[in-house]
């Protein structure tokens, strides 16, 4: 299966694939449980979390956009201001109450040294289990290893932890606030 680097013209299709993939993500659906609100809001959230990958040449996709990974290279960050605005405008009061604690904890675990960050990787549910997640990780980690840097991600889906561990990531803690699901920060040491 071919893994390609997404161009700017691929962004909408890649975001559509991530919207399908994250429709069952525990943290995303906890924050956006209403299906209509999720479908209307998630594309903007995905762009705020990882959209810079389209401009840095670090957005990967599998043939037909069955799977997508948005990697942020060293020095590139998520658009935190847009994220906070989107969550503030689109989540319930209970979620709004818990989100600052989640973001504060995320910041504590996020590496301060040069690193690659994977804010989003997802496979369309119709194609899950076919090795696309592995192929996406393998391709992107070639660049991470070439640079000799660490890689970092967070996962709220326990089903995905073993995939990340097979690629050298280790759980380094737990993030949880109020009624939120547990988010697991994971680090992959430099190779």
UniProtKB/TrEMBL annotation:
| Superkingdom classification of source | Bacteria
Q: Name one GO molecular function term.
A: acyltransferase activity, transferring groups other than amino-acyl groups
Name of protein: Acetyltransferase (GNAT) family protein
Q: Which PANTHER family match?
A: GNAT FAMILY ACETYLTRANSFERASE, N-ACETYLTRANSFERASE DOMAIN-CONTAINING PROTEIN
What keywords sit in the KW lines? Transferase
Task: List the PROSITE patterns.
Answer: GNAT
UniProt-listed Gene3D superfamilies:
3.40.630.30
The taxonomic lineage of its organism, from the top, reads: Bacteria, Pseudomonadati, Bacteroidota, Sphingobacteriia, Sphingobacteriales
- Keyword Coiled coil part of the UniProt annotation: no
Query: Which InterPro entries does the protein's record reference?
Result: Acyl_CoA_acyltransferase, GNAT_dom, Trichothecene_AcTrans
Query: Residue ranges of the N-acetyltransferase domain?
Result: 52-191
Q: Does the keyword Transferase feature in the UniProt annotation?
A: yes
């Amino acid at each position: 299966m071919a893994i390609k680097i997404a161009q700017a013209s691929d962004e909408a299709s890649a975001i559509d694939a991530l919207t399908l993939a994250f429709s069952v993500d525990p943290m995303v659906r906890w924050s956006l449980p209403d299906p209509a609100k999720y479908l209307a809001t998630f594309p903007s959230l995905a762009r705020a979390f990882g959209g810079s990958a389209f401009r840095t040449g670090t957005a990967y996709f599998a043939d037909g956009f069955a799977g997508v990974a948005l990697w942020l290279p060293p020095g590139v960050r998520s658009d935190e201001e847009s994220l906070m605005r989107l969550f503030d405008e689109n989540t319930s009061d209970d979620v709004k109450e818990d989100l600052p604690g989640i973001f504060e904890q995320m910041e504590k675990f996020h590496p301060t040294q040069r690193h690659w960050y994977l804010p989003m990787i997802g496979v369309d549910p119709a194609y899950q289990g076919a090795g696309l997640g592995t192929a996406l990780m393998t391709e992107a980690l070639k660049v991470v290893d070439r640079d000799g840097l660490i890689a970092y991600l967070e996962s709220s889906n326990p089903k995905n932890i073993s995939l990340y561990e097979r690629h050298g990531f280790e759980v380094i803690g737990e993030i949880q606030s109020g009624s939120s699901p547990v988010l697991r920060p994971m680090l992959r040491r430099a190779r």
